[in-house]
Amino acid sequence: MIRRIPLSLYLLALAAAPADAQRRGHRDGAPTARVQSANRAALREPTRAGYVNAVQVYPYAEGTLYRLYAAPERVTDIALQPGETVTSVAAGDTVRWIVGDTTSGSGTSRRTHILVKPSSAGLATNLVIATDRRVYHIQLESTRATAMAALSWSYPQNALIALQGAGGGEAAAPIASGLAVENLRFGYRISGDDPPWRPLRAFDDGRQTFIEFPASIAQGEAPPLFVLDERGGAALVNYRVSGRYYVVDRLFARAELRLGAQRQAVVRISREDGNRRAQRRRRAS
Questions:
Q1: What is the pTM of this model?
Q2: Using an 8 Å Cβ cutoff, are 97 and 91 in contact?
Q3: Which three-class secondary structure state does DSSP give residue 6?
Q4: Cα–Cα distances in angstroms (integers) from residue 263 to residues 48, 193, 232, 266, 270, in the given order
Q5: Residues 205, 206, 211, CA angle at the centre, nearest 5°?
Q6: Of 144, 146, 145, 139, which Cα lies nearest the Cα of 124?
Q7: Rounded Cα distance, 97 and 2, in Å
Q8: What is the pLDDT of residue 175?
Q9: Strands, E, within the chain: which ranges?
Q10: Buried b (16+ CB within 10 A) or exposed e, 80-96
Q11: 142 pairs with which residues across the strands?
Q12: CA–CA separation, 166 and 133 (whole Å)
């Protein structure tokens, strides 16, 4: 005998099904949860070492999300690379955010500026700037009174190309030797203390590791570099100094920069894929 289900119960079950599926999806690692996790990992926040006067200078890497804090009645300037031409600008919220553009300089120094201003506090949206050279992904957030005056980017690939094309002096030779700029990998995390010499970034080309410091590194004592093994043991490693860069002729998963006697400042450099492999080995042992 076939038992008939009341129509009201059938409709109620249909309405509850998507919510149940969504809860199961979150427990099983739903695609939306993976998207949120990837966005959090890719987001770069302002850092003290990244400021040059009132301008936050982010290191550019493709696929990175850059945070911009704005406030009502304040204009924040997004300065692009000199000579870079904008092809399109798109904002997620064009009603409550005002987005404009202007230029400064002329000739080869001509520079495009994207200007943003929120209408109120507590707003969040994104901004995508496409140019003839790259794409910028910016996460906008408005606060009641705190606004970034300006932000811009540094371009490690361009800096290394310039070093590679420098004169044939001995200082330029180690970097110029076999540098594969197209293979640069930026999957490194900087953590630990926040001294004035804290590195801006670390990256490698599959053969050498490069550690870039702020310009203030030239005004004080430079920290030595220690590479850590799987058990946490530290060994001093050889490196060369070229401008603001430490150049290490090897790859490493973890390293530390240490400086100081009574109170030692320690900054850690971790390669993300190297850390994952080390964690898998520890779990397997």
A1: 0.59
A2: yes
A3: coil
A4: 20, 11, 20, 10, 22
A5: 50
A6: 139
A7: 59
A8: 47
A9: 43-44, 51-52, 55-59, 65-70, 76-79, 86-91, 97-104, 111-118, 124-131, 135-142, 150-154, 188-192, 201-204, 209-212, 225-228, 234-236, 240-242, 245-248, 254-259, 265-271
A10: bbeebebeebebeeeee
A11: 70
A12: 23
Residue 28 corresponds to which tokens in the numbers above?
């099983």
**Structural tokens at position 256:** 């530390």
Nearest to 210 by CA among 220, 218, 200, 219: 200
Quick: pLDDT tens for 234-283: 998 988 888 888 999 899 999 999 988 778 899 999 998 755 555 555 45
Distance CA 68, CA 116 (A): 10
Q: How far apart are CA 99 and CA 85, in angstroms?
A: 17
| Gyration radius of the chain over CA positions | 24
Amino acid identity at 128: V
78 three-class SS: strand
Q: Are 258 and 227 in contact (CB under 8 A)?
A: no
Choose among 139, 252, 249, 243: nearest CA to 200: 243
Interacting residues of 206 by C-beta distance below 8 A, sequence separation 6+: 180, 183, 185, 251
Per DSSP, 276 falls in state: H
CA distance 200 to 209: 14
pLDDT per residue as tens digits for the range 110-122? 999 999 999 999 9
pLDDT band for position 6 (50/70/90)? low
Q: pLDDT per residue over 110-160, tens digit each?
A: 999 999 999 999 999 999 999 999 999 999 999 999 999 999 998 876 666
CB count in 10 Å sphere of residue 245: 20
Which one, of 221, 190, 164, lies nearest residue 50 by Cα?
190
